[in-house]
Amino acid sequence: MHDDVLDVKTIDWNHVWRARLARCGSTKRDAGFWDGRAASFAKSITEKAYADQFLAIMKPEAHWSVLDMGCGSGALAIPMAKRVSSITAVDFSGAMLDIIHKQCADQTVRNITTILGRWEDDWEKLGIEPCDVAVASRSLTIDDLQACILKLNDIARKRVYIVTVAGDGPHDRRIFDAVGRSFRPGPDYIYNYNMLYQMGIFANVAFIEEKRNRTYNSPEEAAASMHWMFDELNAQEEAKLAAFLEEHLIFQDESWRLSYENMIRWAVIWWEKK
């Protein structure tokens, strides 16, 4: 045995997390970017597979108050609200919160309070109050992972849930190959889990699998929906993406879709408060 064997508890997981984010070029985290994606998110909230699987793992209780931090367009907040006492839905994209307001009106949901805010803000000043359960669903693409985990842990009285990517997440390697880009994945769930372990939190893990093949109104909409995976495409790469879509887009049931399904895996990590 060697004394210098690497110990997972001695690794600075916050530093490793930041380095991995920088390596993959994760830069699209401003409110403007997500405002721009709100329309596509409004369409995707009708796809219930993700929410149904999460709620089956969560097993929400009717008396719970829940914080949904980084709630997006309400993919979880809306269905959760029908099974718990109250939801505080927080996001830094006003356009995303507008979608939640519309969904609440359309579905007569009255127990969601929305707050415009971000992870780095002073939550007390935002009006975020302690809750029974805190949820961060696919929203932890932040520099200071440990600080955000501590915020969630401190605000929750009973339980905390984090959902993050497992493996490639929603990225499609076929499209990277088609445009001639190398795919550099960001940090996935094992970084979160190791961070929690280092913090003395013994968490549970389960996985959600989605077979995703979204529909589009036109080939142009399909192409635009794939741009989020890249910082920017040059003219040659745009041409390669167009050729890929010409080969793989099919018209079916009055809409366009890819000729294949993309398997997306998410890790649900949760722990009980002591």
Description:
The protein is of the alpha/beta class. The model has no long low-confidence stretch (mean pLDDT 89). Helices cover 39% and strands 22% of the residues. Helix 1 packs antiparallel against helix 9 and helix 2 packs parallel to helix 5. The strands form 2 sheets. It has a 7-stranded mixed β-sheet, with helices on both faces. The protein has a two-stranded antiparallel sheet with strand order 7-8. The chain is globular. It has 11 helices and 9 strands. The protein has a single domain (8-172, 181-213, 262-272), classed as Vaccinia Virus protein VP39 (Rossmann fold), CATH 3.40.50.150.
Looking at this protein, list some descriptive labels:
274 residues, alpha/beta, Rossmann fold, 11 helices, 9 strands, 39% helix, 22% strand, globular
